[in-house]
Write the structure tokens for this entry.
Amino acid sequence: MSQQDKMIEELFHNADELTEKQKKIVAAAIDSFAEKGYAATSTSEIAKKAGVAEGTIFRHYKTKKELLMAIVAPTMAKLIAPFVIKDLNKVLNQDFERLEDFLKAFIENRIQFLKSNMPLFRIFIQEIPFQPELREQFKEHIAQKVLERLRQIVEHYQAKGQIIEMPPDTVIRVAASTIFGYIIARYLLSPEEKWDDNAEIERTIQFLMNGLSPEK
Amino acid sequence: MSQQDKMIEELFHNADELTEKQKKIVAAAIDSFAEKGYAATSTSEIAKKAGVAEGTIFRHYKTKKELLMAIVAPTMAKLIAPFVIKDLNKVLNQDFERLEDFLKAFIENRIQFLKSNMPLFRIFIQEIPFQPELREQFKEHIAQKVLERLRQIVEHYQAKGQIIEMPPDTVIRVAASTIFGYIIARYLLSPEEKWDDNAEIERTIQFLMNGLSPEK
DNA sequence: TTTTAAAATGAGTGATTACTCACTTTTATT
DNA sequence: AATAAAAGTGAGTAATCACTCATTTTAAAA
């Protein structure tokens, strides 16, 4: 079983309940959706790649869209998982006195996750403009829970004088842009280029720290 | 008339050679492609929306993909137009002594352009992962000409001590992330939200300046 | 007014689409 | 071993797809 297959299995926590053929269908769908897009991928193509009959797909997923949702929804949940832990502020107080330490730990953790789930991340950002249901789920979870958490974190470090006085939403926006900008450039735009990842992450954090630290 | 304006007018010029029906086809296609995506839009739908027969589309565009390219290619050219002007460094020396002034003028100019062409920008970023021909064109023009220009600009301001010593490509990446991050958040993710655009652009530039300025 | 070429049409093409269903095979329960 | 339920199958379906082409309409030159 490949690393990717393991990852996929881990991601779908109810993977035990999936049959062998179902796992193959999911893997094939992820592959094709990421490569050609959801709309341009046919169910016959997925069936062929998975080595199953086309009818088998519709035994487990009523529609093609239901298959998409079954794939993307758990990924979204995992992506935002670190924000949903209960006592985030306690963790912050104990382990991350300095903003830089928090940023470093956080960025490296999330990059590691996305690196292992790049096809799923790709599908997610590609399909979110076209799937109202997906957008609904995203807004409900991200906008309400994650943004709220992030605001707390920003205000936490602002109170400690480590982040410039600026509306928390703006701080979140520029920080998120910088981080996702790195991930997208590194793994989607120019994955074939030579990257000194450690140095590049270091510089990205340096830029973020400079940009966010109060002026002297 | 500036060199830039000339460039833009030149790109608009062939619009006169389009038939009335052809213009309606292009408008309908932009509308549908932006809303549902290229693959999920049928030619019959475009014809219906444009009020023409389906055959009329194929009289002017051999294939559906050719219609897409005819729409997106000029947009790409217009987007990068400011970078292609010949004596950019002269302009810089004369008008933009300070990086902040350059950033402000540049960002506001490009935001204005994208604001007026949001559906086209949307189609562009949505389809570039799936259209090798589009990606080819993009890389050929952006990677070679625009990146080269941007490196010159970065090095120009680094030599003047206004940008931190850092690989130019990294500077370009974090700056582009910040700027596109604002545009995407403002016009694609949350266009319905209340935005104090002037203040938000001001803060974005402030963050950029802080992040890029040499440490003291 | 006549001529001519480009523009526009829409019924028709074979291929492909998402999905169904009667049926067979596998697995679990007794 | 018998039975039932679940999993898997693949030929078949109507609808839709991108695209063609013989024909008609439009418009400008001669």
Remarks:
- The domain at 3-212 of chain B is CATH 1.10.357.10 (Tetracycline Repressor; domain 2).
- Chain B touches chain A through 34 residues (CB under 8 Å).
- DSSP finds eleven helices and no strands in chain B.
- The longest helix of chain B spans residues 132-159.
